[in-house]
Predict the 3D structure of the following.
Amino acid sequence: MKLYYAPGACSLSDHIVLEWIGNPYEAQKVSREELKSADFLRLNPAGAVPVFEDEGWVLTQNAAILNYLADTFPDAKLGGDGSARSRAEVNRWLAFVNADVHPTFKPLFGTTSYLGDDAAIANSKEHARTALKGLFARADAQLANNAWIAGERSIADVYLYVVLRWAKANEVDLSAMDHLAKFVARMEADPAVRKVLAEEGIGRASPSS
């Protein structure tokens, strides 16, 4: 198994899951320049990470890779407890992060630069921060009575952790969301998470971990 990743990108979630699973794998860092290279574009014409290879088969799209890993390694128990409802809960929160939270960051990542007006661009970024605050409040409420977003540790947790890192880097105000802060600290107390952060050369998001 081989994962192509960029430090701190959503591929971080797949990297952590591979470490949690514990089977041998290779992780290859891809630079911005390499994303647009002919060799990489043959793997993923979108020029984006993550890209996952397994015995010559190539899979893209973060949610698809996470689900594939959960299904391929059921003993890791990252896709629910085996029941249909538990699996649906994992996918509910995975979809929440993938379809609701992740795209809302786009203005903060420069996708509204086409507006060409500094005030309009700044306004789009503040609108994104406000929307993200509301979305993260929902996750915070879910974590009030759960250590993990779907009840038990799952593939949804790693993706949530990644977007929380983005929130901190982009000054999204999560100051009143104590359950999310505890979740981040819980993730970063995990030896596998610490190992992956070190391998990708990125710091921890929680000052207390």
Observations:
- The beta strands are 2-5, 26-29, 51-54, 57-60.
- The chain has two domains: 2-76, 84-190.
- The longest strand covers residues 2-5.
